[in-house]
Amino acid sequence: MIQIDELRxxxxxxxxxWMVVSGLCFVAVYAIVKFLGTEVPPAQSAFLRYLLGLVxxxxxxxxxxxxxxxxxxYVLFAIxxxxxTIGVIxxxxxxxxxxxxxxxxxxYLTPVLLSLSAILILGESITLRRMLAIFVAxxxxxxxxxxxxxxxxxxxxxxxxxxxxxxVSYLIAKKATGRLNAEMIITMLSLTVTVxxxxxxxxxxxxxxxxxxxxxxxxxxxxxAGHYTMTKAFYSAPVTATQPVTFLQLVWATMLGTLLFAxxxxxxxxxxxxxxxxxxTFLAWREAVYHLxxxxx
Length: 297
What we know:
The structure is a single chain. The protein has 297 residues and is mostly helical. It has 14 helices and no strands. The chain is 79% helix and 0% strand.
């Protein structure tokens, strides 16, 4: 039996702690955006979230301006900015149309599509286990959406667009990681998405109240903190140890929607989300095993 001291020494407990904090941060983002509802148009909410979030990249701006980007990198980041902009707008819209549990569950599809895209686009190896995990995740998606058994809302469509858009965005980020550090990639994303959202937000702009600005600043803070603590979790412990903890995010999101926003608990959504999480966890484990074997060869 694994002892607590062994887990502590391996960094697993630290990694799990950071992943729990990350999940709580993202649930806080869901709660605030859900609370804002349609008071602020989704495109404007997204723009203000990124604009106010620029304060968090100030410490790395000096390094950013000293970095020499190639023409290809500028093109890649511009394309990423377009797709991420679309994804963010659709995500904010989906939060006003469907339940928090549905948004959370469908969000888990992104790493699954990312794995499929890595096979089709980046030419990564195709294995039976990998394809089965992707198939199982798609089954989980069908349980959530249940096409033909219920009417799908524009929010569901928006969320699927979000998943596809974020998948493209993360594929480009993966391609860029071999050339640039994480700080430069995040900074470029923050700047391009802010610029991309501006003209769309300007069309639907309504004067925000001080309370709305404060809440959107909190969204920017918790979103940044969520990504930071997730990175800390990946640094502290293997992905295989931290990935199952993301299931708690679905539990918290479901409870939050029920207790604060009177959203009904849909067992099909919970079941589908659980299946997708299981698939994502398996994919993470297979990736960890693959990289470990590659290093030992």
